[in-house]
């Protein structure tokens, strides 16, 4: 399934979806980016998981962070990944086969957990896909125990930089990419979402994540094709911008980045 803009969807709902391998590859490439690694390490330290804690990764994807959580909470704790996508859950379960971790199909709007049952929740790059982020934050607050911690991490796509390429074409494609996310500037709203849900802010962090070509080009190529189909750019402009980027990556003169923000809070 592609989304309504024709770009790869991260919310596919079938085990045998033809884009599954592409999406897993994109997620794996992103997880290896130094900026993402640093942001995750910072968030992990901020959550300060202890043995015996119940920890949840909302939008757990391939399960990487759930595996790390499992090591921190130990045999006495619970590390739970929640994702709406059964295909991605299957990948995560396979990769975590030797780890004490749980993966549950569920929606951010209706978490399959009792009230006040969780010590820590992390949620990374999910809010940009949500039509109702306030509802999701209310659910996080509901399942947290008093004193429980939450960390939200998300991108703010208006901060994206793509180089090289004609500035006019890049601007048109960036606007097209932004419309792929219903909540494209979610990063700047994370603090407000948590406060609105009754949580207390403890810390805020950010990272301008530098994307390597193998991480961004599959998505960027799809955006250029949609830009052409929508009449935003011509075929000549598409060919030129892709050629410019190819030359840039070959020569080392390229830059792809987007700022990610993270906010840590607790339930009073």
From TrEMBL:
<dbReference type="InterPro" id="IPR029063">
    <property type="entry name" value="SAM-dependent_MTases_sf"/>
</dbReference>
<keyword id="KW-0808">Transferase</keyword>
<feature type="domain" description="Methyltransferase type 11">
    <location>
        <begin position="56"/>
        <end position="151"/>
    </location>
</feature>
<dbReference type="InterPro" id="IPR013216">
    <property type="entry name" value="Methyltransf_11"/>
</dbReference>
<dbReference type="InterPro" id="IPR050508">
    <property type="entry name" value="Methyltransf_Superfamily"/>
</dbReference>
<dbReference type="Pfam" id="PF08241">
    <property type="entry name" value="Methyltransf_11"/>
</dbReference>
<dbReference type="GO" id="GO:0032259">
    <property type="term" value="P:methylation"/>
</dbReference>
<dbReference type="GO" id="GO:0008168">
    <property type="term" value="F:methyltransferase activity"/>
</dbReference>
<keyword id="KW-0489">Methyltransferase</keyword>
<protein>
    <submittedName>
        <fullName>Methyltransferase domain-containing protein</fullName>
    </submittedName>
</protein>
């Amino acid at each position: 399934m592609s989304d309504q803009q024709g770009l790869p969807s991260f919310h596919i709902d079938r085990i045998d979806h033809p884009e599954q391998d592409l999406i897993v590859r994109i997620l794996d490439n992103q997880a290896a980016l130094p900026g993402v690694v640093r942001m995750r390490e910072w968030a992990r330290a901020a959550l300060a998981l202890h043995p015996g804690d119940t920890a949840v990764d909302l939008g757990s994807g391939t399960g990487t962070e759930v595996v790390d959580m499992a090591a921190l909470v130990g045999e006495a704790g619970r590390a739970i990944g929640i994702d709406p996508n059964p295909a991605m859950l299957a990948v995560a379960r396979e990769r975590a086969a030797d780890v004490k971790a749980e993966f549950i199909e569920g929606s951010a709007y209706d978490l399959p957990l009792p009230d006040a049952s969780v010590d820590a929740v992390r949620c990374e790059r999910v809010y940009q896909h949500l039509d109702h982020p306030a509802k999701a934050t209310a659910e996080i607050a509901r399942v947290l125990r008093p004193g429980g911690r939450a960390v939200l991490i998300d991108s703010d796509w208006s901060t994206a930089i793509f180089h090289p390429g004609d500035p006019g074409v890049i601007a048109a494609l960036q606007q097209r990419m932004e419309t792929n996310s219903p909540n494209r500037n979610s990063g700047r709203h994370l603090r407000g979402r948590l406060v609105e849900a009754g949580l207390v802010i403890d810390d805020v962090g950010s990272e301008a994540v530098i994307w390597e070509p193998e991480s961004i080009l599959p998505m960027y190529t799809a955006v250029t094709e949609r830009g052409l189909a929508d009449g935003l750019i011509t075929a000549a402009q598409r060919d030129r911008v892709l050629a410019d980027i190819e030359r840039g990556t070959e020569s080392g003169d390229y830059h792809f980045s987007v700022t990610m923000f993270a906010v840590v809070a607790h339930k009073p």
